[in-house]
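Worked example

This section walks through a single chain of length 219. The input is the sequence exactly as stored; nothing has been trimmed or padded.
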Amino acid sequence: MNRNLQELIGQQKAQVRKKATLRSRIISDQCVRALYMACATVISGSAIVSCILLHLVMIPYLSESVYEPGWCHYDRSQEYSSRQCENKCSKDRSSFPCLRMQATYLPDSEFPQSSKTSFSLSSRTFKQFARKSDKVRRLFIYDSFGTYAAHKVEQCAYGPCHKRADDNTDEIHQFKHRYENIRVFRCYARPYNWTELLAYKVCSTLEAHTSHGQLFTIL
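Given that input, the structure is written out below as tokens.
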């Protein structure tokens, strides 16, 4: 009788140990799975962040790093027929008037050393330097490198794409009036290329004198 009872107790203990072992294995597997998912999430998240940084920082930097600083003088502008666009975030389709703006460019080397620091250049002073220089370029203005890449064929200076076309028109008129008022502003150019100029570099350590940036192509 006692022997049978001991065997029964032994079997129950063995079952308890077996269940405990099985439970620990399940917990261990769950921990491994959770750890794997966490690592996969971190790796995929890092990859996504890297892609975003590459698109927002590295590519613009590589595209803009060849441009060198100078000064630009707003000359004139003209509106052409509207262009269709699609907002990248909302995917809303809209349109904006194609505004072509022209400017005159002079590199920093054409100005005295004091002109390269925080200093305001008047329209009259700019024209005085321009008359003496053989490095003057007549160009089309673009709001940014992205605008240049998207609208270089049409030569549109600015391409806002809000849901309402009227909002785009108002923003373009504000953009135009801003440069009509300031006339002279900071800009950048490729030293050995007479087809492109940039007035504000996104990744530059230099402060632009305006809140917008421009890229230009020669006439």
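What to look for: The chain has two domains: 1-64, 68-218.
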